[in-house]
Amino acid sequence: LFLSCIQVSTGAYKRQVHEVPLGKQITDTAMIEKITWATWTSILGDEVIGIWPRNADKADVNCACVTHAGLNIVTGDDFGLVKLFDFPCTEKFVSGDFILIQSKQLTFPMFRFLSMWL
């Protein structure tokens, strides 16, 4: 799909997709599925349903970032974990690979330098 779009996560934990710069919301699921995203930092959507642990509260997963190649996604959560998953992660309750970080809450891990560093 050749549109400039942005996806946002609302405070009500809803995913919205909007045309840029008009701001018009796109609600057609078939149209949204055709969008090729340049980057991905959303914790919501069918593409990332597997990043949510079983019995997780909506606020437990704080952030996500997909590698530049679009093959993996990293998340940060309220438990001090950085988790790495395949992307897209469409199967529920995938365990992922994880490392424990000395932090109560991780808010924005992201890939740097051609996805070689986190």
UniProtKB/TrEMBL annotation:
Residues 5-93 form the EML-like second beta-propeller domain. GO terms for molecular function: microtubule binding. It comes from Bambusicola thoracicus (Chinese bamboo-partridge). Transmembrane segments: none annotated. Keywords: Repeat, WD repeat. PANTHER family: HELP DOMAIN-CONTAINING PROTEIN (PTHR13720:SF33), WD-40 REPEAT PROTEIN (PTHR13720). InterPro entries: Beta-prop_EML-like_2nd, WD40/YVTN_repeat-like_dom_sf, WD_repeat_EMAP. This is EML-like second beta-propeller domain-containing protein.
